[in-house]
Design brief:
The complex is a heterodimer of chains A (127) and B (184). Chain A is 81% helix and 0% strand. Chain A contains five helices and no strands. The relative contact order of chain A is 0.03. Chain B has 184 residues and is an all-alpha fold. Chain B is elongated. Classes of the chains: A mainly alpha (127), B mainly alpha (184). Chains A and B meet through helix 1 and helix 2 of A and helix 2, helix 3, helix 5, helix 6 and helix 8 of B.
């Protein structure tokens, strides 16, 4: 019984805590403005979009965006192409060193092999 | 809106300007649902605007004025869930700027109402919507299930769990004033 009383109390309290609220003033006018401008137009969301969308048409916005993208490319590509490449030359130098080391190691290996094989061959010749 | 009537719907299909009448009839419901869910005026307004734009695009698919209301309710609830999934939203209570409630004054405890509003805003999205649809829109469980596209038993469970989570708040505040059930 106590629990039932509580739940009745809670439900009534919830009804009071969540009343229907009137929409903000001018809401229907704003919606109708978007409806009149064309149903395909996405409603502007957020403060910046609310400013930009009514100011520029869709085509103008795309033109603006592609212009900005082209300008960014025009700036970044030459800078990227003209930058010095110290890393590349350093790599070449290290490659050359590595090749020399490998060559020297190969020579040493051959010399060691010859030295190791020569007494065996001498023994074989004796038999 | 009457069950079988198509007066508003037909008028809106024929004349774009008549769409304003549908907005006028339903804007409080649409805005309140979104506002109680997010506790944020801007988001609620954006969402309501989106819902009306969708409605305008889909007017020809609807059967009656009542269908318009149900469709709007369903669309707003889905948009609420989508939006809450897209961006983890931390609800905040904007009670200072919120307009005064439309309901008739009842013997009430404003502290409890505020605390409950905050508690409701902390519920998981689907549970929150079930509670809002039940106590703000006064829908039956079947209608809630239809609006959310879930089985009735799931709606029932969500409502029960939601109330269980909210109950300690009422007990904690030890309200001396118990609201008389509105009988809706």
């Amino acid at each position: 019984m106590r629990r039932q009383d509580d739940s009745g109390c809670l439900e009534a309290a919830l009804r009071h805590a969540m009343p229907r609220r009137p929409a903000p003033p001018g809401f229907s006018r704003r919606v109708m403005r978007v409806v009149r401008s064309g149903p395909r137009l996405q409603p502007p969301r957020g403060r910046w979009r609310r400013l930009i969308v009514p100011t520029f048409s869709t085509r103008a916005r795309w033109t603006l965006a592609s212009g900005v993208a082209a300008a960014l490319l025009a700036l970044t590509v030459p800078v990227w192409q003209s930058r010095p490449e110290p890393a590349g030359s350093a790599l070449e130098g290290s490659e050359r060193e590595l090749a020399e080391v490998l060559h020297m190691a190969g020579l040493e290996w051959n010399r060691a092999q010859e030295a190791a094989l020569s007494p065996i061959q001498e023994n074989q010749n004796e038999f | 809106m009457e069950a079988g009537s198509r007066k508003l719907l037909d008028a809106a299909i024929q004349d774009q300007e008549a769409f304003a009448a549908i907005i006028a009839k339903t804007e409080a419901m649409v805005f309140s649902l979104a506002f109680t869910f997010f506790r944020n005026r801007d988001i609620a307004e954006d969402l309501a605007q989106d819902a009306y734009l969708d409605l305008f695009r889909n007017l020809h698919k609807l059967d009656s004025d009542l269908h318009v209301v149900n469709w709007l309710r369903q669309t707003v609830t889905r948009k609420c869930i989508d939006r809450s999934r897209r961006k983890k939203f931390r609800p905040h209570v904007d009670l200072t700027t919120a307009p005064e409630p439309r309901v008739e004054p009842v013997q009430s405890d404003p502290v409890l109402a505020r605390e409950l509003a905050l508690k409701v805003a902390e519920l998981p999205p689907k549970m929150r919507l079930v509670v809002i649809l039940r106590f703000q829109e006064d829908l039956k469980l079947q209608e809630i299930a239809d609006a959310l596209g879930i089985p009735v038993n799931t709606a029932k469970t969500l409502l029960r769990r939601g109330l269980l989570r909210l109950r300690p708040k009422v007990q904690h505040l030890k309200t001396e004033v118990c609201y008389a059930p509105a009988g809706r």
